[in-house]
From TrEMBL:
Belongs to the eukaryotic mitochondrial porin (TC 1.B.8.1) family. It is found in: Membrane. Gene3D superfamilies: Porin (2.40.160.10). This is Mitochondrial outer membrane protein porin 4. It comes from Theobroma cacao. One of its GO terms (biological process) is response to bacterium.
Length: 273
């Protein structure tokens, strides 16, 4: 639908270029799909001397998707999503076991000139969240608010404006309950190269933080990304599609302030037979 994107996606393109796929641990992902609509994903992550893993099963049938995840701590997360409950909408019911207070209902409605997302916790004192954007696919204005009924207080409120063009995207967000201003920008220099920047200004401390980065497609199967932050950290990523839909990603980060620590290195392998 050619309408405004949900508020959560405002500034997402720049954030993805600067953060997505960077991994400084060892990660392995295996995804298997079947023609019956069943999908199985197994993930393992080694962080320092600890190992974390989960198995995620997804089943699709018509407008309904069932997603069940089990991790190494025996936590079970379940999500049931139904599309087109009414035209241009979807609803999702999620909960975790054994956390009996984790139930949540999410409803999304997309319109050619608006996008609305709402969430309510399924417990006696629920957390309520609502976000909305209005405008068009190119120019949108929106905001989000969260309310905790247990303490009768706002947990968050954010406002923003986004501009999207074929070769660039800009977003300006007032975050942290009006205490910070975040600006992001991404620009496609050519079909192979993109650059992005994100800056945050905190009104209370007058502190500025920024990150700049780039993404370059060396060939149809290889992408190289770089990132530099105001704290001096420099990061680089190389991702190679060595077979269809199977990726190997090598990441590295150097912190000049950590003189006694070696640069961080990470390896991620994603297989999709």
């Amino acid at each position: 639908m050619a309408g405004p994107a949900p508020f959560v996606d405002m500034g997402k393109k720049a954030k993805d270029l600067l953060t997505k796929d960077y991994n400084f641990d060892q990660k392995f992902t295996l995804t298997m799909l079947s023609s019956t609509g069943m999908g199985l994903t197994a993930t393992g992550l080694k962080k320092d001397q600890n190992f974390f893993g989960d198995i995620n099963t997804v089943y699709k049938s018509g407008n309904t998707t069932v997603d069940v995840k089990v991790d190494t701590y025996s936590n079970v997360s379940t999500k049931l999503t139904v599309n087109d409950v009414w035209p241009c909408s979807k609803a999702a019911l999620s909960f975790r076991i054994p956390d009996h207070k984790s139930g949540k209902l999410d409803v999304q409605y997309l319109h050619p000139h608006a996008a609305i997302d709402s969430s309510i916790g399924l417990n006696p004192t629920p957390l309520l969240e609502l976000s909305a954007t209005i405008g068009s696919k190119e120019l949108s204005l929106g905001g989000e608010v969260g309310f905790d009924t247990a303490s009768a207080s706002c947990t968050k409120y954010t406002a923003g404006i986004g501009l999207n063009k074929p070769d660039f995207s800009v977003a300006l967000l007032l975050t942290d309950k009006g205490q910070a201003l975040k600006a992001s920008y991404i620009h496609s220099v050519n079909p192979f190269t993109c650059v992005a920047a994100e800056m945050t200004h905190r009104f209370s401390t007058y502190e500025n933080n920024f990150s700049i980065g780039s993404s370059h497609a060396v060939d149809p199967f290889t992408v190289v990304k770089t990132r530099f932050s105001d704290n001096g950290k420099v990061a680089m990523l190389c991702q190679r599609e060595w077979r269809p839909k199977s990726l190997i990603t090598v990441s590295a980060e150097y912190d000049p302030k950590a003189v006694n620590a070696s640069p961080k290195m990470g390896l991620a392998l994603a297989l999709k037979p």
